[in-house]
């Protein structure tokens, strides 16, 4: 199923932790300066005003533009993986999912983002239970989550 067909068939379900699915529409990139010194998240260090390269969000987050799309997360089942309510995840359909990766899956018509386990999808929050493939009528592994975007303002 192509990303366009996936989006056309998408129906919001109550128990899904995927709120929206977006097709990647950018055909050009906006290069932003990337400084050659890392920024301290603890105590400040002397600033260095030297630009190393210019970085495009597309270049950094998207490896296969024709197979990449974005999903907005709803809920808190993946908070211990650093994925929070409202985050936008980058999903690449061209990658084969492997055990231990975070993936987008469709279980009985509901989209969800979880770790891929052996015959199950595993949340990153102990308040939720794993979803066993044996308990579902239909299971589709849609794509691998390769990145995340979050707005603070």
From TrEMBL:
Protein name: Peptidase S24 and S26 domain protein
GO molecular function terms noted in the UniProt entry: DNA binding; hydrolase activity
Gene Ontology process terms (BP): DNA repair; regulation of DNA-templated transcription; SOS response
Family per similarity comment: Belongs to the peptidase S24 family.
Pfam families the UniProt entry points to: Peptidase_S24
Annotated keywords: Autocatalytic cleavage, DNA damage, DNA repair, Hydrolase, SOS response
Annotated ranges, domain Peptidase S24/S26A/S26B/S26C: 33-145
Listed SUPFAM superfamilies: LexA/Signal peptidase
């Amino acid at each position: 199923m192509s990303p366009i067909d996936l989006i056309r068939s998408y129906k919001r379900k109550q128990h899904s932790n995927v709120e929206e699915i977006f097709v990647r529409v950018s055909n050009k990139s906006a290069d932003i300066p990337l400084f050659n010194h890392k920024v301290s998240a603890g105590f400040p260090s002397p600033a260095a005003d030297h630009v190393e390269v210019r970085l495009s969000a597309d270049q950094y987050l998207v490896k296969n533009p024709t197979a990449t799309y974005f999903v907005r997360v709803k809920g808190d089942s993946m908070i211990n993986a650093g994925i929070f309510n409202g985050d936008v995840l980058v999903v690449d359909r061209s990658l084969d999912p492997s055990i231990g990766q975070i993936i987008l899956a469709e279980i009985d018509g509901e989209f969800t983002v979880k770790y891929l386990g052996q015959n199950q999808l595993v949340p990153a929050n102990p308040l939720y239970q794993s979803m066993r493939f044996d308990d579902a009528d239909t299971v589709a592994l849609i794509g691998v989550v390769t990145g995340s975007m979050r707005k603070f303002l």
